[in-house]
Amino acid sequence: MKKGLILVLALVMIFGAVGAVFSNGQQEAKDEQIVIGYSIYWLSEFATLMTEAMQEKADAEGIKLIVLDAQWDAVAQLDHVQNFINQDVDAIIVGAADVYSMVQGVEMANEAGIPFVGVNMRIPSEKIDAYAGPDDVRAGEMMVEYAIEQLGEKFNCIVLEGAEGYSATVDRREGVKNMLDANPGVNALDIKTANWTREGALELMENYIQDFGSKIDAVIAHNDEMALGAIQALEAEGMLDDVIVTGIDAIYDACVAIDTGKMEYTVFQDAVLEGSLAFDAALTLINGGTPEIKENYINMIGLTKANVAPYLAAFNK
Fold first, then answer.
1. I need a labelling partner for 159 at 20 to 30 A (CA). Which of 18, 46, 193, 203 fits?
2. CA separation (Å) from 75 to 80, 109, 138, 258?
3. What are phi and psi of 118, to 5 degrees?
4. What is the H or E stretch that residue 131 is in?
5. What is the dihedral of CA 281, 121, 295, 79, to 10 degrees?
6. DSSP letters for 193-222
7. pTM, 2 dp
8. C-alpha to C-alpha distance for 269 and 222, rounded to whole angstroms
């Protein structure tokens, strides 16, 4: 009787141990999946393309990509970073809603030993592990260069800037200023922010049309959304044929506006390439490597009616 009981107990212990090993093995396999936390300032058309490129790569690699939309809320985005740290993700990618406040996020990730990659918005921190994004200074310069090519070295312009707290605003402002300083005949009638929005630009341009009327020769907008808002106001007043409008991003509506002759020029920055480069940098860091280029600035391409067709076709709309 005792021998039978001992045998039963022994079998229970053996199968229990095997079950525990099997269970632990399953847990370890589950835990081995790479997880990347990604917070984006706002899922705009451009940011969505960037995000889709990351998701495609994540799916191909069997990596879990956690995507959070900060909706331009810098405080919420810092919470995203803290949540990623609490979840012990393998890497963090951030398109910053406010680059200056996100310096704290970089430091938080650094203290936790988690690689941090910036995308699209350049965060002013030496502790950031990698960055992929546009050469926004050059983009600002390119818009004014195009206007000079079309109008000559003497004309009046309105400059519509992005919101404060964004590297894109700072850098595009620098690029525009470089060209204004180098070309004293180009006069900025006014420079104000329209907060990246079509609605904000529409309202500003309606006021500018009342204030300056036919003195306006060009509109230099920090992004396409604001350029399109300006176009709406100019078209309503019958002034669009007499004013050159430029923007940045080459979003679908801007490419359509260029193709139909309502907009003159936009600067294309490759959202898919930016997302892919940021994801690749994060994966390299996770695997213990060092990205070949720590600050990866992509080339910018000017689009006009002459070359917009293939970019418009790429939207598949």
1. 46
2. 9, 16, 30, 37
3. -95, 145
4. strand 130-134
5. -50
6. E-TT-HHHHHHHHHHHHHHHGGG--EEEES
7. 0.79
8. 13
Compute the C-alpha angle 201/206/212, nearest 5°: 110
User: What is the pLDDT, as a whole number, of residue 31?
Assistant: 56
Q: Is residue 93 within 8 Å of residue 257, measured between CB atoms?
A: no
Residues 6+ apart with CB under 8 A from 126: none
Phi/psi class of residue 2: alpha, beta or left (left: φ > 0; alpha: ψ in -120 to 50)?
A: alpha
Distance CA 32, CA 63 (A): 10
What's the pLDDT at 96? 95
User: Each residue of 22-57: pLDDT tens digit?
Assistant: 344 433 444 589 999 999 999 988 899 999 999 999
CA–CA separation, 96 and 167 (whole Å): 9
From CA 120, how far away is CA 172, in angstroms rounded? 13
C-beta of residue 225 within 8 angstroms of C-beta of residue 198? yes
Helix (H) or strand (E) holding 46: helix 45-61
DSSP state of 87: T
Among candidate residues 124, 69, 57, 138, the one with its CA nearest the CA of residue 97: 69
Residue type, 68: L
Give backbone dihedrals phi and psi of 26, rounded to 5 degrees, phi first: -60, -45
Across-strand partners of 68?
Answer: 39
CA distance 68 to 16: 41
C-alpha distances out from residue 283 to 68, 87, 125, 186, Å? 19, 18, 20, 46
Q: Which two tokens stand for residue 207?
A: 């006021």
Average pLDDT taken over every residue of the chain: 91
The answer to whether residue 198 scores a pLDDT higher than 60 is: yes
Q: Considering just the CA atoms, what is the radius of gyration of the chain in Å? A: 26
Could you tell me the two tokens for 80?
């995203």
pLDDT of residue 21: 40
3-state secondary structure of 6: helix
For residue 305, pLDDT over 60 is answered with: yes
